[in-house]
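explain this chain.
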Amino acid sequence: MNNASDSAPVTRPEPHALSSRLITADSAGPVRLGMTPEEVRQPELEVNREERQLEGMPAPTLVVGHQGTDLLLAELQNERVWRIRVVSDTLATPEDARVGDTARRLGELYGRGTVATGEGNVCALFAKAPGRSFCFEFPAGKTGGTDSWEELVGSGAVVEEILVVGAGPR
Protein backbone atom coordinates (compact mmCIF):
# COMPACT_ATOMS: atom_id res chain seq x y z
CA MET A 1 0.00 0.00 0.00
CA ASN A 2 1.29 3.46 -0.92
CA ASN A 3 0.73 6.43 1.31
CA ALA A 4 1.97 10.01 1.10
CA SER A 5 4.97 9.36 3.34
CA ASP A 6 6.16 6.48 1.12
CA SER A 7 6.26 8.62 -2.01
CA ALA A 8 7.54 11.88 -0.49
CA PRO A 9 10.92 12.89 -1.92
CA VAL A 10 13.84 12.53 0.44
CA THR A 11 15.79 15.73 0.88
CA ARG A 12 19.45 15.47 1.75
CA PRO A 13 21.78 18.27 2.67
CA GLU A 14 24.14 19.47 -0.02
CA PRO A 15 27.47 17.66 0.41
CA HIS A 16 29.35 20.93 0.89
CA ALA A 17 26.63 22.96 2.61
CA LEU A 18 27.40 24.59 5.95
CA SER A 19 25.77 22.75 8.82
CA SER A 20 24.91 26.11 10.39
CA ARG A 21 24.89 29.72 9.21
CA LEU A 22 23.70 31.14 12.54
CA ILE A 23 25.54 33.63 14.77
CA THR A 24 24.61 33.19 18.45
CA ALA A 25 26.08 34.42 21.73
CA ASP A 26 28.57 31.54 21.74
CA SER A 27 28.93 30.40 18.13
CA ALA A 28 29.23 31.45 14.52
CA GLY A 29 28.24 28.86 11.97
CA PRO A 30 29.69 25.51 13.04
CA VAL A 31 32.38 27.10 15.28
CA ARG A 32 31.70 27.47 19.02
CA LEU A 33 33.59 29.23 21.77
CA GLY A 34 35.73 26.75 23.69
CA MET A 35 36.46 24.47 20.72
CA THR A 36 39.99 23.19 20.12
CA PRO A 37 41.62 23.66 16.69
CA GLU A 38 41.03 19.95 16.03
CA GLU A 39 37.29 20.37 16.69
CA VAL A 40 37.13 23.39 14.37
CA ARG A 41 38.64 21.35 11.51
CA GLN A 42 35.52 19.87 9.91
CA PRO A 43 35.09 18.42 6.41
CA GLU A 44 32.89 21.33 5.31
CA LEU A 45 35.42 23.98 6.38
CA GLU A 46 38.75 25.29 5.12
CA VAL A 47 40.88 26.08 8.18
CA ASN A 48 44.30 27.75 8.19
CA ARG A 49 46.26 28.66 11.29
CA GLU A 50 47.98 32.07 11.30
CA GLU A 51 49.66 34.38 13.78
CA ARG A 52 47.80 37.70 13.74
CA GLN A 53 48.44 40.98 15.53
CA LEU A 54 45.48 41.40 17.85
CA GLU A 55 45.40 44.15 20.42
CA GLY A 56 49.10 44.76 19.81
CA MET A 57 50.17 41.18 20.52
CA PRO A 58 50.78 38.17 18.26
CA ALA A 59 47.89 35.77 18.64
CA PRO A 60 47.18 32.36 17.14
CA THR A 61 44.14 32.58 14.92
CA LEU A 62 42.24 30.09 12.78
CA VAL A 63 41.03 31.56 9.49
CA VAL A 64 37.88 29.57 8.75
CA GLY A 65 36.40 29.52 5.26
CA HIS A 66 33.88 27.71 3.13
CA GLN A 67 34.14 27.18 -0.62
CA GLY A 68 36.93 29.74 -0.99
CA THR A 69 35.35 32.50 1.12
CA ASP A 70 36.68 33.50 4.54
CA LEU A 71 33.79 33.34 7.02
CA LEU A 72 35.41 34.05 10.35
CA LEU A 73 38.52 34.31 12.44
CA ALA A 74 38.60 32.06 15.50
CA GLU A 75 41.03 33.55 18.01
CA LEU A 76 42.79 31.05 20.25
CA GLN A 77 43.85 31.29 23.86
CA ASN A 78 45.37 28.20 25.50
CA GLU A 79 44.47 26.28 22.32
CA ARG A 80 40.74 27.01 22.65
CA VAL A 81 38.55 29.43 20.69
CA TRP A 82 37.92 32.38 23.00
CA ARG A 83 36.58 34.96 20.50
CA ILE A 84 35.12 34.72 17.02
CA ARG A 85 35.26 37.51 14.44
CA VAL A 86 32.63 37.01 11.72
CA VAL A 87 33.84 38.72 8.52
CA SER A 88 31.34 37.43 5.93
CA ASP A 89 27.69 38.15 5.23
CA THR A 90 27.16 34.39 4.73
CA LEU A 91 26.45 34.04 8.46
CA ALA A 92 23.61 35.86 10.24
CA THR A 93 22.04 36.23 13.68
CA PRO A 94 18.58 34.75 14.35
CA GLU A 95 17.19 38.25 13.61
CA ASP A 96 19.12 38.27 10.27
CA ALA A 97 21.76 40.85 11.22
CA ARG A 98 24.95 40.36 9.23
CA VAL A 99 28.19 41.93 8.02
CA GLY A 100 27.30 44.81 5.67
CA ASP A 101 24.22 45.96 7.57
CA THR A 102 23.96 49.62 8.55
CA ALA A 103 23.77 50.85 12.13
CA ARG A 104 20.25 52.04 11.30
CA ARG A 105 19.17 48.48 10.37
CA LEU A 106 20.65 47.10 13.58
CA GLY A 107 18.64 49.70 15.49
CA GLU A 108 15.48 48.47 13.73
CA LEU A 109 16.30 44.88 14.74
CA TYR A 110 17.58 45.41 18.29
CA GLY A 111 16.67 48.92 19.43
CA ARG A 112 19.09 51.64 20.49
CA GLY A 113 22.66 50.42 20.77
CA THR A 114 25.42 51.31 23.19
CA VAL A 115 28.54 52.54 21.39
CA ALA A 116 31.93 51.29 22.56
CA THR A 117 35.26 52.53 21.18
CA GLY A 118 38.78 51.30 21.59
CA GLU A 119 41.93 50.58 19.60
CA GLY A 120 40.53 52.49 16.64
CA ASN A 121 37.31 50.45 16.53
CA VAL A 122 33.74 51.63 16.91
CA CYS A 123 31.33 48.89 17.94
CA ALA A 124 27.74 48.69 19.14
CA LEU A 125 26.32 46.40 21.78
CA PHE A 126 22.64 45.58 22.22
CA ALA A 127 20.75 44.15 25.19
CA LYS A 128 18.71 42.08 22.70
CA ALA A 129 21.91 40.56 21.21
CA PRO A 130 23.92 39.36 24.22
CA GLY A 131 27.40 37.98 23.63
CA ARG A 132 27.82 39.80 20.31
CA SER A 133 29.35 43.15 19.35
CA PHE A 134 28.87 44.75 15.94
CA CYS A 135 31.95 46.67 14.73
CA PHE A 136 31.75 49.25 11.96
CA GLU A 137 33.59 50.71 9.02
CA PHE A 138 32.76 54.20 7.84
CA PRO A 139 32.13 55.56 4.34
CA ALA A 140 34.98 57.47 2.68
CA GLY A 141 35.32 60.92 4.20
CA LYS A 142 33.63 59.95 7.48
CA THR A 143 35.53 59.38 10.68
CA GLY A 144 35.09 56.67 13.25
CA GLY A 145 35.41 59.10 16.15
CA THR A 146 31.82 58.84 17.29
CA ASP A 147 30.64 57.79 20.71
CA SER A 148 26.89 58.34 20.42
CA TRP A 149 24.33 56.02 18.90
CA GLU A 150 22.68 58.86 16.98
CA GLU A 151 25.98 59.91 15.37
CA LEU A 152 26.74 56.30 14.45
CA VAL A 153 23.34 55.83 12.79
CA GLY A 154 23.68 59.14 10.93
CA SER A 155 27.20 58.36 9.70
CA GLY A 156 26.18 55.63 7.24
CA ALA A 157 28.56 53.19 8.95
CA VAL A 158 28.20 49.52 8.04
CA VAL A 159 29.04 46.41 10.02
CA GLU A 160 32.55 45.26 9.17
CA GLU A 161 32.66 42.35 11.61
CA ILE A 162 30.56 40.74 14.32
CA LEU A 163 32.41 39.68 17.46
CA VAL A 164 31.16 36.64 19.34
CA VAL A 165 32.39 36.74 22.93
CA GLY A 166 29.81 34.78 24.91
CA ALA A 167 26.98 35.92 27.12
CA GLY A 168 28.39 34.93 30.47
CA PRO A 169 30.94 32.81 32.28
CA ARG A 170 32.26 29.85 30.33
